[in-house]
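Example 3.2
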Amino acid sequence: MKPLVENLYVHVPFCTHLCPYCDFPKERLAGNRMRDFLAGLQAEWAATREEFTLRPRHVFFGGGTPTALSPALMKELLAVAPWGEAEEWSVEANPDGFGDTKARQLAAAGVTRLSLGVQAFRPADLAWLGRKHDRAAIRQAVQSARAAGIRSLNLDLIYGLPDQGPAEWQETLAEACALEPDSLSAYAITPEEGTELAARLARGEWSPNEDREAVLFLLTCRFLEARGYQSYEVSNFARHGHECRHHQAVWSGKDYLGLGPGAVSTVGGRRWRNLRDTGAYAQSWRLGSGPRREEEEARTSEQVRTEEILLGLRTRSGLAEPGLAGHEAWLDTLVRKGWARREEGRFRLTARGRLRADEVAAILT
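Structure, written as tokens:
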């Protein structure tokens, strides 16, 4: 029997420009490469239907910037597979270049959720992050999404930037909330290996401040929860019913299939990554030649359990206590410290505890 897959991630690796902090597989827009990508994606979809039983419930288009494609190429992308049959279809977009035409195109195809890469509002912050939009573009993108009738809107933000203290970050949060999104994501800036941001760190031009980031994280929790956005994962906050179901499925250990160059999959106890290079990816699927996957591994029960604990501790749902047998004394200690709660048979970290999620996971694994 073929494995059943209900959660799909589609990686679209194209951007109009490359941001200094991003380490996802991506490249600048180029007509021939985009054509290769679409041909490869069509071939991959056809091939994976033979290997898996695909019944999409939650679909997430990430990148890169899926909406960086022209309307004509967007039309082809949206028509590759019956994505619109899913209960939730999320698409990432950047404010620059996203207007009424693409918003209506997404809505007509059946997209239910848009995640807008705002990241910041202050001009200095946007410049440091290498972003090309401004406040006006953000407002226009939000208005276009709402006017098109896209059901749920998420705004992505980044904190821990130079010269960004609690006052500046609270101002950013307030400006984001004024746009009335249905959910928000707030990530600490991280110098990933191989990025320009990591090079800045190596040159001594910048360094992260963990203590300041902790203050900003706790401020985020207080500020957003006071305005009706409940924390459902360390970096994610939503009004009731607007949580990203795709992310929740992945965090809870459900199988997911990644399509597109560099996309990661976890299905049936195996994990792998597609070829990162767009041309090689497309050729391998079109011609069936050479390895179509890399970094493939069989996941052991120990690896699965460790990942379950690491991800579960980051979420509002936490972990089932029966699975933590033998750690009762530690659980009580963490509760006394104010790092966790034990409720209705679940062990959940508090906001302060989530700052130490990796430390707690090391205790429980």
